[in-house]
Amino acid sequence: MAHPSFAVVIPMYNEQAAAEACARAVCEELRKLPHRSALIAVNDGSKDATGEILAALSLQEPKLTLVTHPANRGYGAALRTGVGAAAAAGYDYVLFMDSDLTNHPRDIPRFAEAMEDGVDVIKASRYIPGGGMEGVPLKRSLISRLGNRVAGWLFGMGLHDCTNGFRALRTAIAVQMDLRERRFPIIMEELYHCRFLATTFREIPVVLTNRRLDQRKTSFSYTPGTFWKYFKFALLAFLHVRPAEYARTRKD
């Protein structure tokens, strides 16, 4: 595909400390590329000044589209809203990333290169040559590395970093998914659906950094319930249990 279009979708909830810097950095990177592109920021019912900051910036920045949830509906709902907006605008791909700049906008061109090759699913990876983590606590790093090794084996798609939220997929595939998770396990639910909808996968190396001290703390919790919410989708994929709504699939 020659310069396929894409929208960067970023959910934001109470991110006033990083919202403007994130949006400006992403839009600056998009302007360097020849692709038709946009940043779709989903303000998910923020109670701080996130919405006001983004609204003011959208008047100055033509690449920025702001969509607002009146009340907080969760990360999963924000992603689904972003996909809907991207599909309505006719973008070929959706690229998801976080608002705290732990995913660096400079990696967006790497995604664009894979899009030009027509890859269905593109995942950022910390665990391939060139990837890594900086400033991430050792405990979190070890749990992530071990968990992704197991999840990658269960999914069987050749991926090394299944839980990474920095990823892109064809919009035509994304709109077929009946995703129901409200929080971060939707990343794994999405991969589970990709197991039956997508045919090509690629990883690009990225370096994940930690959130700044002035930013809202991550809400991820290391509990048995959380791990089960993540790994159940990898297990379903391993057992070849198809999502109930798919009468026909492109891949077994």
Quick recap:
The chain is of the alpha/beta class. Helix content is 37%, strand content 18%.
Please provide a written account of the structure.
The chain is an alpha/beta fold. The chain has one domain (6-238): Spore Coat Polysaccharide Biosynthesis Protein SpsA, Chain A (Alpha-Beta Complex), CATH 3.90.550. Helix content is 37%, strand content 18%. It has helices at 19-31, 50-58, 75-88, 108-116, 138-155, 171-174, 186-197, 224-238; strands spanning 6-12, 37-44, 64-69, 93-96, 121-125, 132-134, 167-170, 201-205, 207-209. The strands form two sheets. Strands 3-2-1-4-7-5-8 form a seven-stranded mixed beta sheet, with helices on both faces.
Task: Give the key terms.
single chain; 252 residues; alpha/beta; Spore Coat Polysaccharide Biosynthesis Protein SpsA, Chain A; 7-stranded mixed β-sheet; two-stranded parallel ribbon; 8 helices; globular
Radius of gyration: 17 Å
Globally, the shape reads globular
Order of secondary-structure elements: EHEHEHEHEEHEHHEEH
CATH topology: Spore Coat Polysaccharide Biosynthesis Protein SpsA, Chain A
Alpha carbon gap, first and last residue: 26 Å
- Strand arrangement across the biggest beta sheet: 3-2-1-4-7-5-8
What's the CATH H-level homologous superfamily?
Spore Coat Polysaccharide Biosynthesis Protein SpsA, Chain A
Instruction: Sketch the major β-sheet.
Output: 7 strands, mixed
What's the CATH C level? Answer: Alpha Beta
Low-confidence spans: pLDDT under 50, at least 5 residues? none
- How many domain units? 1
* CATH level-two architecture: Alpha-Beta Complex
**Number of distinct beta strands:** 9
- State mean pLDDT (0 to 100 scale): 91
Provide the structure class.
alpha/beta
Number of helices: 8
Q: Determine the strand fraction and express it as a percent band.
A: 15-25%
Helix content: 25-40%
